[in-house]
Design goal:
7 helices, single chain, alpha/beta, 206 residues
Length: 206
């Protein structure tokens, strides 16, 4: 098992923790990671865009002028796509963009990105997010101490002081263990997790 340092909020080493190889030293499957990201972004789309086709716009039942002899190009309807107010060619219609992915594939993709972060030394374990009050500066100083500018902060349970303190910092997102996902782990440069969160990850995803 890989061993990583456990730091306090001042960036000082206070111990070590062993990481489960099944999660943090898993085979990296780039294809599954790609599918997970594409699926997550697709599932965010509402799919409610709609426009009217030529058959759905009102009017245009009468031919605007006779076929020949006017000097104009022949026209069959004032609601044809080339007319202002006409129907849209291949108009978008409400549809479901969601992409399904097997549970095992999702887990393999998540393990792949967690392994990548550990290999790149971008996975930081904090002993405990102990905040005496809601204060943005406290979290900002912690991130500065561990050299993490764009960070995903992961906590095991409810920690209102941490989440509210980090809420105003640009490039920082907070998440619970059961809400972490492939896209966020890739989007944020460093994953900063509490020791309790790491133990919970190893319990849930092993």
């Amino acid at each position: 098992m890989a061993t990583v340092s456990v730091l306090n909020m001042a960036g000082q080493e206070v111990g070590t923790i062993e990481l489960n190889d099944a999660i943090f030293a898993a085979p990296v499957n780039e294809h599954l990671v790609h599918l997970a990201v594409v699926g997550q972004l697709a599932n965010k789309r509402q799919g409610t865009q709609s426009a009217k086709t030529r058959s759905e716009v009102r009017g245009g039942g009468r031919k605007p002028w006779r076929q020949k002899g006017t000097g104009h190009a022949r026209q069959g309807s004032i609601r044809a796509p080339q007319w202002t107010g006409g129907g849209v060619v291949f108009a978008p219609k409400p549809r479901d963009y969601s992409v399904k992915m097997n549970k095992k594939e999702k887990r393999a993709a998540l393990k792949s990105v967690l392994t990548t972060k550990v290999n790149e030394n971008k996975f930081v374990v904090i002993d405990e997010f102990a905040l005496s009050e809601i204060k943005t500066k406290t979290v900002a100083n912690m991130l500065k101490a561990i050299n993490a500018k764009k960070a995903l902060i992961v906590e095991e349970g409810k920690n209102e002081k941490l989440f509210k303190s980090a809420g105003n910092i640009a490039g920082v997102k907070t998440a619970y263990v059961n809400t972490i996902n492939v896209y966020d782990i890739l989007k944020y440069d460093t994953v900063v997790a509490s020791k309790a969160a790491v133990e919970k990850i190893q319990e849930v995803y092993a």
